[in-house]
Amino acid sequence: MSTTRRPLLVGTLTAAIVALVASAAVAVGAIGGPSSGPLGVRGGASPGGHGFPSDPLRAAPKLPGTVVNVSLTNMGGSMMGGQGNGMMGGGAMGLSADHATVPHGTVSFLVTNDGSIDHEMVVLPLAGSRTAGARSVGGDGKIDEAGSLGEASKTGGASAGDGIAPGASGWVTVTLAPGHYELVCNLPRHYTAGMYTQLNVT
Length: 202
Fold this sequence. Notes:
The chain has one helix spanning 5-32, and strands at 66-74, 93-97, 101-102, 105-113, 121-126, 150-152, 169-176, 179-184, 196-201. The chain is α+β, with helices and mostly antiparallel strands and 202 residues long. It is globular.
């Protein structure tokens, strides 16, 4: 090979290697780089290290007071006849909290929809000796929400909305006096399908 062609070949190889390394760096940044998306959309760890993957639809700001993690679930496939009508294709629904008892005062609920359809969570007082799951259901498949202290029904946000989408979270902060409360999903027929639990406040 002539000495005049060798520098040209070395220069070409060097340029090709630099281009390959730059392409790899861009690809790695696009796949694994930090998300710049807004809080409350798929991507970031949940506050206080609650164990959720980095996901903005599950992430929430640092919540005040005692934080109760609530999981909303459904089994047996999607709803028949469209979302929201409450007719399950088999299986049941559930609402569970990681605390059965909390101290009175400021309580925040981080509510995650681990199901395949929209859900919500409403905080209702339980009067006297009433127990969770015993409320009467109207013709619309819902219970009376009179006396509600707040709800988490907004995808990736606080308080009320149109329902928390599958895979997403919503949150709400309330002040609770000592007593007994019921956490419910009040979308049509979700309560009768098992979406309620009791919370005791000391």
